[in-house]
Design goal:
Elements lengths: L12 E8 L18 E11 L5 H13 L15 H5 L4 E11 L2 H16 L4 E5 L6 E8 L9 E9 L2 E9 L5 H17 L3
Length: 197
């Protein structure tokens, strides 16, 4: 839990999702039985920039959610679109992180390889080098929806350290830059390096 980003790490953000003792991502339903027998535990947390919650921005988000048959809630259920993405061009708007532990480095490596492989299959994402001493890390960048005119820009990072895998998804305005995302990603990878399970 201590390696996950919190509101104090990203001022102006509010927690919008948290799964403790989660099943592995990509499996049917959080908390479901993992297909990796060596999976020990995992935690997932999401943070949302409060700017997305202003009344003007919520109109676009609520309209988009209704179009996709999502219920109206206190927080948006879908990737941000519309006014907030257009006006907050360089801003980080959403931040999601998962930390997963396995019984062995080999099992963690297998899971990380699967996560990396699924990102490589996404034609909208381009892989780029991300080097962190003591880790196996890969980063990807691209539009969340290549068809949408006002889709968020996305950075995904998968990092393996020993028996642990860290996944990060940073989403924001269409001009969100790696120089904005990299410091936070580096802080979280360093936290895991400093307190490995």
């Amino acid at each position: 839990m201590s390696v996950l980003a919190a509101e104090k790490d990203l001022p102006g953000f509010v927690k919008n999702d948290e799964e403790l003792n989660t099943g592995l991502p990509g499996r049917p339903g959080f908390g479901g039985r993992p297909s990796f027998t060596g999976y020990v535990c995992g935690h997932f947390r999401g943070l949302l920039n409060r700017v997305a919650l202003t009344p003007a921005n919520r109109k676009d988000e609520d309209r988009h959610a209704a179009k996709l048959n999502y219920p109206h809630g206190e927080l948006p259920y879908v990737p941000l679109v519309g006014r907030v993405v257009r006006t907050q061009k360089t801003a980080l708007l959403e931040f999601y992180e998962g930390a997963y532990q396995f019984r062995s480095p080999a099992e963690a490596r297998q899971f990380a390889a699967g996560s990396i492989g699924s990102n490589r299959l996404d034609d909208a994402l381009k892989e780029f080098p991300y080097r962190v001493p003591g880790t196996e890390a890969v980063a990807f960048s691209g539009a969340m929806d290549a068809e949408a005119r006002d889709a968020e820009h996305l950075y995904r990072i998968v990092a393996r350290i020993g028996r642990s895998v860290l996944t990060i998804s940073a989403q924001g305005g269409q001009e969100l830059s790696w120089s904005t995302v990299r410091p936070m990603a580096g802080t979280l990878v360093a936290r895991l390096q400093q307190s490995p399970p």
